[in-house]
C-alpha cells in the first residue's frame, strides 16, 4: 500500500499521464508522418476518468509527438504501455520512482505481463481502466493505493465521461476526432492480443451516448478506433443508423465478414463511412486456418473489395507475413493481389507473437522465440524463427513488399483502379511511401541478419 503526502492537505492532485515512444512511433526521429497520425484515445480517456471531486490537474505527454520532460513535477504518474513501448515505459517508470514520484503502469502489456510490470511500478492496472483507474486515484488520495487493480467481468461502458481531447495538441494530428463505441472482439485469432488481454465478450456504449459525444466534438470527419465495429451485428445496425443524420465522413475497423450482410454494407455507406481497415492477413487458406482466422476463409477477397469500392468505401488492407505456410513466393503473390484488387492502402506486418498469446505459447514451446527484447515486438521485426523462411528472408521480403506496393507506378495502378476519394488516398499513400522507403532505418535486429545473410535481399 502506498501512502502520500496529499492526505489532510488542500493541495491539488497533479497527475501526469505518459504514452512512451516506440522504435517507430517517436518524436522527431520517428517514421510516422503527420499524414498518418490520428489522435489516440488512451491518455485523453484516462484524463476524463479522474473523479471530479478530486479536482485534479491532469497533464498528458505523448512521446510520439513531443519529448517527455524528465524533470516534470507530479504527485502521481500513470504510464500506458504496449509491448513495443514496454522497455521505454520501464525506463521512465524507474526514473520517476527514483525521483520519489509514485508510478502506475497500465495498458495492454502490463495486462499481459502484470508481474513484469510490477517490478517497475507502485501499482499495476490490469485490464480495462474505466472503473479501476478512478478507484486507484481515490485510494491514492486517501493514502491507500493498492499494488494491483484488476478489472472484473462486470464492466459497463454506460455513462462514461467524454475523452479530454483538449489536453493534447490537436495541431500535431491529421485527425483529432477519434472515438470508441465498443471494446473487444469476438474472434480467437491466435496472434492477436485482444482476446488474450480482454477476453472475447464485446462491450458497447449506449448508441445515444456515442452520438452525444460526436455532437459534443462537433465532428464532421471521424475515426472509430474500435477493434471490430461489427462484433455485434444488431448494435452495428443501430449505431450506423444513428450516424446517418449526423452527415459525417468516417472510417473504422471491421472484419471481412461484413460482406455477408448487404443491409449492413448499405447502412455503412449511408452513414458516411468512406474508409475501412480490414485484416485480410493472408491469401493462404492454410495460414488463415493456422492462425484461427477461419472466418476469412469464407470470403472472396476480390468480392470484399468490389462490394466496398462499389459503395465508395476505401480499403486499408492489412496483411501479415511469417505464417508457417509462408514461403519466399508469398511476398510477390500478396503484392500482385494488392495491385490487381486496387487496394487503396495496403499494409504489411511481420507476424509478432505478443507475450501471453496462444501464438507466443506455441512458438515458445517449439523453441522458436529468438528474442524477448520487447522493443522489437512492433510488427516490423522478426522475433521468432519462421518455418519455411529464414528471419532475414522474412524481414527483407516484407520490406520488399512495402517498396513494391508504394512505388509511384504501383500507387497509380491501385488508386486509379479504385476510382474513389483520390485526394485522401493519395495523401495517405504518400505517408506510407515514406514509411516503406525508410523502414530499413529502423531495423535494429541485425544481430541475426549477420548470422543469416540473404544474397539477393528480395524475394525471387
Ligand atoms: S478479428 Fe481482429 S481484433 Fe478480432 S481477434 Fe482477430 S485480429 Fe484481433
Textual characterization of the structure:
With 460 residues, the chain is an alpha/beta fold. It folds into two domains: 14-150, Cobalamin-binding domain (Rossmann fold), CATH 3.40.50; 177-451, pyruvate-formate lyase- activating enzyme, CATH 3.80.30. The chain has 17 helices and 14 strands. The chain has helices at residues 42-48, 86-98, 108-112, 114-118, 132-141, 193-198, 207-217, 233-243, 262-270, 285-290, 301-309, 330-340, 358-365, 391-405, 408-418, 422-438, 446-451, and strands spanning 14-19, 57-62, 76-80, 103-106, 123-126, 148-150, 178-179, 182-183, 203-204, 221-224, 249-253, 273-281, 314-321, 345-350. The longest helix has 17 residues, at 422-438. Mean pLDDT is 90; it is low at 453-460. The structure holds iron/sulfur cluster.
What are the main properties of this structure?
2 domains, six-stranded parallel β-sheet, disordered C terminus, 14 strands, Rossmann fold, single chain, binds iron/sulfur cluster
Cα distance spanning the termini: 59 Å
Main β-sheet description? 6 strands, parallel
Output the structural class.
alpha/beta
Using only C-alpha atoms, the radius of gyration works out to: 22 Å
Sequence stretches where pLDDT stays below 50 over 5 or more residues: 453-460
- Overall pLDDT score: 90
How many strands in all? Answer: 14
Total helical segments: 17
How much helicity do the residues have? 25-40%
Percent strand = 5-15%
List bound small molecules.
Answer: iron/sulfur cluster
Strand order of the largest sheet: 2-1-3-4-5-6
User: Which fold name is given in CATH as the topology of the largest domain?
Assistant: pyruvate-formate lyase- activating enzyme
Shape: globular
CATH class of the largest domain: Alpha Beta
CATH architecture of the largest domain: Alpha-Beta Horseshoe
